[in-house]
C-alpha cells in the first residue's frame, strides 16, 4: 500500500496514526516556583530560599506535581495517607479528610438526618461552630447546661429531648473530655445519634477510649491553633458505613468518593446535593505529619498538666475545675473558679504579673462566642434570607418548636463562665517549669484566699 493510502486509512483499520508525537513541551503545571512559594510560607530566610531553589531546580520533576486528592495515579495521595493514618490511630472503619472542622460537623449532622423540623442538643459552653453547623443543616440547636468540668452535664440532657431531637453533640472543651459513658447511655435509651465535636481535644480519651470513637461520628478541626494543628483542615471518623457515605456525599457531592462515580444511587438517601469540603493535598501533606505527632504531643501536655496540678494547694473560695478523666484529658488548660468574677479577675491579673499565662472571660470581657447566649449567628435566629429558615420554618413551628437562647437558660454555664480562671499549659514545660508555675499559683492564691487543707483536691 502506498504511503498516502496508509495515511488516509483509519488507524482503527490498521492505517498510520495521524498523531505520532507531540513536540510542544511547556513547563510543569506545578513545579519549582510553586514549591518555592510554599517554602516561602514556611518562613525560611532569603539565603535559605536561594539554596532551596538551587537544589530543587537541579532535580527533574517531569510534569510536576498533580495535586488532586483523588485518582492521582498509582501512588497513594496524601489525602489517602491521612485517612489511612486516622483509621489506624483511632481504630475506626472510616475516615474522611475535610477542609475544616466546621465542614466535618456540617457533613456529620446532615448524614445523621438533621434537617427542617429537627433539634440537636449542644453544650452551653464550647464554640459557636457546633451550633452553627446544626443551623447550616437546617436543624435547631438546643443548649444543655454544663457542670464544673465545663463540659455538657449528662444529667441535664434527658429533660431536653423531644420528638424533634435527632442528635446530641457533646463538645470536648479545651483539651478536656465529656463524661461519654453517661452521654451515650441517654442517647441509646432514646435512640438518638451522638456527634462528638473533638475540635479542641484531639487525642484525648475518656475511660481509656479516644474521644470521637464513642459517638456515631467524631469531628475534628486541624486548624493552626488546635492540638494537632496544620493550617486549615478537618477530619470526620465513624464506624458506620451508611453514615460515612452520607457524610461523604455532603462533603463531596461531585461523587468522586463513590466506587463508581456516576452510577445511580445504590439505596434511597445515598445521593443528594451537598457541597465541596475536599481537603487540599498540600494541607493533607502537613496534616499527615502533624497527626503522626499526636500521641507524643498529647503525652507531653498531660505530663505537664498533672505535674502542675500535683503541686497545687487548696484554698477557701477556690473551686478546682472538675476533671472528668485525669488520665484522658489533654490538659492544655488548667481551670478553677474563684467565688466571684471580681476575685477571678484580680487573681488572673496577679498570675499574669508572675509570668503565668492566665485569663478570664468574665462579665467585664467582650461578648464571647464560646458561651451560648453570645453565639450571635445562632441566637439572633436570622437566616440569610428573609424567611429566617430554619428558625421560622413551618415544619419546625408545626412540630411545636420554640427555642429560647436568652441568658438564664443555662444558669450553671452563666455563672461558671464569668468566674473561671484559665491557665494555659505548654506541652514544652519541663519539671522545673511546672514546679515554678505551681508555686506561682499557690503564691497568688495565698495572697487572696485562706488555706483550706480539707478543700476539694485538684485531681
Ligand atoms: C469546638 C469547636 N468546634 C468546631 C470548630 C471549627 O473548626 P474549624 O475552624 O476547623 O472549622 C472549632 C474551631 O475553633 C472548635 O473549637
Description:
Helix content is 35%, strand content 12%. By secondary structure, it is of the alpha/beta class. Among the domains are: 22-66, no CATH class; 78-290, Type I PLP-dependent aspartate aminotransferase-like (Major domain) (Aspartate Aminotransferase, domain 2, 3-Layer(aba) Sandwich). It has a seven-stranded mixed sheet, sandwiched between helices. Strand 6 (205-206) and strand 7 (209-210) form a beta hairpin. Helix 4 (78-90) runs parallel beside helix 9 and helix 5 (101-111) packs across helix 8. It is globular, with a radius of gyration of 27 Å. The termini are far apart.
Summarize the structure.
The protein starts with a helix and ends in an 11-residue tail after the last helix. It has helices spanning 3-8, 32-41, 46-57, 78-90, 101-111, 128-136, 180-189, 241-251, 281-310, 341-353, 376-379, 394-398, 411-419, 431-448; strands spanning 94-98, 119-123, 140-144, 165-168, 193-197, 205-206, 209-210, 217-221, 234-238, 318-320, 333-338, 358-360, 421-424. α4 (78-90) runs parallel beside α9 (281-310) and α10 (341-353) packs across α14.
Amino acid at each position: 500500500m502506498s504511503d498516502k493510502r496508509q495515511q488516509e486509512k483509519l488507524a482503527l483499520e490498521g492505517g498510520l496514526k495521524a498523531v505520532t508525537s507531540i513536540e510542544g513541551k511547556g513547563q510543569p503545571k506545578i513545579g519549582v516556583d510553586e514549591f518555592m512559594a510554599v517554602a516561602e510560607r514556611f518562613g525560611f530566610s532569603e539565603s535559605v530560599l536561594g539554596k532551596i531553589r538551587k537544589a530543587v531546580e537541579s532535580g527533574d520533576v517531569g510534569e510536576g506535581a498533580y495535586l488532586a486528592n483523588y485518582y492521582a495515579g498509582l501512588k497513594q495521595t496524601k489525602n489517602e495517607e491521612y485517612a489511612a493514618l486516622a483509621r489506624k490511630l483511632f481504630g475506626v472503619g472510616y475516615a474522611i479528610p475535610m477542609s475544616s472542622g466546621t465542614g466535618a460537623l456540617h457533613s456529620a449532622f446532615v448524614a445523621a438526618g438533621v434537617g427542617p423540623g429537627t433539634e440537636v442538643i449542644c453544650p452551653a459552653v464550647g464554640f459557636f461552630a457546633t451550633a452553627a453547623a446544626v443551623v447550616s443543616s437546617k436543624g435547631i440547636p438546643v443548649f444543655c447546661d454544663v457542670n464544673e468540668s465545663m463540659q455538657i452535664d449528662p444529667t441535664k440532657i434527658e429533660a431536653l429531648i423531644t420528638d424533634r431531637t435527632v442528635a446530641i453533640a457533646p463538645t470536648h472543651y479545651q483539651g478536656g473530655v465529656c463524661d461519654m459513658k453517661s452521654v451515650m447511655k441517654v442517647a441509646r435509651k432514646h435512640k438518638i445519634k451522638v456527634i462528638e465535636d473533638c475540635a479542641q481535644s484531639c487525642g484525648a480519651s475518656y475511660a481509656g477510649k479516644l474521644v470521637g470513637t464513642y459517638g456515631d461520628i467524631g469531628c475534628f478541626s486541624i486548624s493552626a491553633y488546635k492540638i494537632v494543628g496544620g493550617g486549615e483542615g478537618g477530619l470526620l471518623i465513624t464506624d458506620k458505613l451508611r453514615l460515612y457515605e452520607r457524610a461523604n456525599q455532603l462533603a463531596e457531592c461531585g461523587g468522586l468518593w463513590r466506587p463508581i462515580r456516576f452510577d445511580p444511587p445504590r439505596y434511597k438517601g445515598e445521593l443528594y446535593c451537598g457541597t465541596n469540603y475536599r481537603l487540599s493535598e498540600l494541607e493533607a501533606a502537613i496534616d499527615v505529619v502533624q497527626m503522626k505527632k499526636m500521641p507524643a504531643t498529647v503525652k507531653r501536655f498531660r505530663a505537664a498538666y498533672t505535674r502542675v496540678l500535683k503541686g497545687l494547694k487548696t484554698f477557701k473560695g477556690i473551686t478546682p475545675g472538675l476533671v472528668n478523666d485525669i488520665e484522658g484529658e489533654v490538659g492544655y488548660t488548667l481551670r478553677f473558679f474563684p467565688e466571684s468574677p471580681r476575685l477571678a479577675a484580680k487573681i488572673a491579673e496577679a498570675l499574669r504579673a508572675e509570668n503565668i499565662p492566665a485569663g478570664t472571660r468574665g462579665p467585664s470581657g467582650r461578648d464571647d462566642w464560646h458561651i451560648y447566649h453570645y453565639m450571635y449567628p445562632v441566637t439572633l435566629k436570622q437566616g440569610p434570607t428573609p424567611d429566617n429558615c430554619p428558625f421560622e420554618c413551618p415544619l419546625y413551628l408545626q412540630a411545636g418548636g420554640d427555642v429560647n437562647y436568652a441568658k438564664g437558660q443555662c444558669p450553671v454555664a452563666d455563672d461558671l463562665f464569668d468566674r473561671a480562671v484559665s491557665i494555659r499549659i505548654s506541652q514544652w514545660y519541663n519539671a522545673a517549669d511546672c514546679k515554678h508555675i505551681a508555686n506561682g499559683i499557690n503564691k497568688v492564691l495565698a495572697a487572696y484566699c485562706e488555706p483550706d487543707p480539707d478543700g476539694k483536691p485538684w485531681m
